[in-house]
Every structure is written in structure tokens, then in C-alpha cells.
Amino acid sequence: MDTTARMHDRRHRLAPRATVVATVVVVVAGLLAGCASSPSPDRTTAASASASDSATRSGTGEIRHELGPLTDRFPQLATALSATWMSGTMGDERVPGPSTYWIDAVVVLDEAGFAELLALAPGEAGSGAKAELPDLDPGLDDALPPGPFVRSSALDDAFSQDGRSTQVLLDDATSSVILTSRFQ
């Protein structure tokens, strides 16, 4: 067999191996791309926090009424008369790493405390503009006032301290604060 024939024969034997290697490289690259990290919910901005809202919620399903855990986290609720709230974690418990917690609450304030919060939404109260309720745990449905609700970015900012991302709505007729918050 001459040199040209041997090289031709060798190429035909190596071609299937090269195809297999190329296929494996493409499959591995695709798998690695699927594992690429994305920003964790704790690093989202308030504007992108809604992406973490789509994560699976877990919790005990217990409806709570004690004020201490809420007023400790949210000093703006110090004049609370009553509260109905739920909490838990976001995401899959089987995935390691820091947890993102959620709190959904309906809190009734005294008149003075409610007036202070209402002052953070100037021009919003009585404007006839209705704010939409965020997705709250369905366990709170019975505690929700009928609205209309007032919302402002100043209210959200006032409650979004210490790494929390919080949406706040006010119901003037019942002096109620409705909030949903995410934090680590």
C-alpha cells in the first residue's frame, strides 16, 4: 500500500472519532450554558424584584396576628392596632444557599400612624387612581380591605430598608397597610 492510500485509509478511520468528539463538545457546552448563574433574588433591584415573585413560595400556611415580628422589621408599623400576616421562604428548599424570605401582611394602624404614612403619598390619596394589589398569599384574602388602595414609590422606599424589597399599599377607609416584602 502506498503512502497516499495509507493516509486516505487513516482519515476514514479517524473521521467517526472526530465527529463523536465534536458532538460531545457541543453537548457539554450546551449543558454548561444551561448552568450559567443568574443574579440571585437578594441582588435584584426593586424594579426587578418581580422576577423573584414567580419563585415557589413555601411556608407553614399559618396565619399570624402577633405584632412584634412585624414592628421589629418595619418600625413604620409601630402604631399597629392589629395585623394579619403570613411568611415563609422562596424557591426550592433542596437547593443550597441563602434563603429569600417573604412576608405578606395586612396591618391596621391608629389614625396618627396612618396619617404619617399617608403623608408619604402626597397627591395619591383621594386622587381616584386605584393601585393594583400585588400577589399576596391567598390566606390573607379574608383580611384584605375593599380599597381603593394608594401606593407610591416613597412608601415602598420607606419600607425597603436593610436589604428588603417591599411594596406598600394604603386603604384610607380602614387605616390599613397592605405590604409584601422579600429579604434575606
Automatic annotation (TrEMBL):
Residues 37-69 are annotated as: Disordered. Residues 37-61 have a biased composition (Low complexity). It comes from the Bacteria. This is Uncharacterized protein. It comes from Plantibacter cousiniae (nom. nud.). The lineage of its organism: Bacteria, Bacillati, Actinomycetota, Actinomycetes, Micrococcales.
